[in-house]
Specification:
Oligomer: single chain
Structural class: alpha+beta
Strand content: 15-25%
Strand order of the largest sheet: 3-4-5
Number of strands: 5
Radius of gyration: 24 Å
Shape: elongated
Low-confidence stretches: 1-15
Mean pLDDT: 80
């Protein structure tokens, strides 16, 4: 769902701010070239996509009107989505939001428009984020053992050991356990797949998808 917009969250007791990444700033830079009416249209697209998911045809239609590449519009709209969602997660005040976007060097009228959009939609965005949040079990502890059947005259071939896992989770306020059993080769394959998933989670494609869903 979306281009990569990296940002670091910085908090302090007095003033929590969103520190925006360079790529995010570059994507939002296109907003300085459009009329205020177009910016408002982009903002409505962003909020609408947060409600119901992205629609590539909307990017294409807006790009055709502005005579620019669809990808340019997509990155700008998704940049607004990222800005609004991250600031809503941090519960930024109007002053904190304004101070966060000042670092981008935008004209003051654009800063004011973005601030107005944030104040108008932050409560709804928080509600959307709460609705789509998944209540998944959380990890508590893991115990494991390896079971091996010793060789005997009755065994015609060498047996492969099995790995037994006891996974303790916290689910709906209660502690639960899951017993799993597998062979070492499958466990190694699972570990490789999880490593690949972690690498994928750092990719631009994953961040696009994650931000379109959240």
């Amino acid at each position: 769902e979306l281009p990569s917009h990296t940002g670091k969250k910085r908090t302090s007791a007095a003033m929590p701010l969103l520190v925006l990444g360079q790529e995010h700033k570059e994507h939002l830079q296109f907003l300085t070239t459009v009329d205020p009416e177009v910016l408002l249209d982009f903002a409505q697209l962003a909020v609408g996509f947060l409600r119901a998911g992205t629609n590539p045809k909307a990017y294409q239609a807006a790009a055709k009107k502005l005579n620019v590449a669809s990808e340019v519009v997509q990155k700008a709209v998704e940049g607004i989505m990222f800005l609004l969602t991250e600031c809503s997660k941090l519960l930024l005040s109007d002053m904190d939001f304004h101070d966060s976007i000042m670092t981008m060097g935008f004209p003051e009228d654009l800063n004011s428009t973005l601030l107005k959009l944030y104040l108008e939609h932050r409560v709804e965005i928080r509600s959307i984020l709460d609705d789509v949040a998944m209540d998944l079990p959380t990890y508590q502890a893991l115990e494991w053992r390896i079971d091996v059947q010793l060789g005997s005259r009755a065994l015609r071939k060498q047996t492969e050991p099995s790995v037994v896992l006891k996974l303790d989770l916290q689910e709906n306020g209660e502690s639960t356990s899951r017993l799993l059993q597998t062979d070492p080769s499958t466990l190694l394959h699972l570990a490789d797949e999880l490593d690949q998933a972690l690498r994928d989670a750092k990719s631009a494609h994953y961040r696009r998808l994650a931000r379109s869903l959240h």
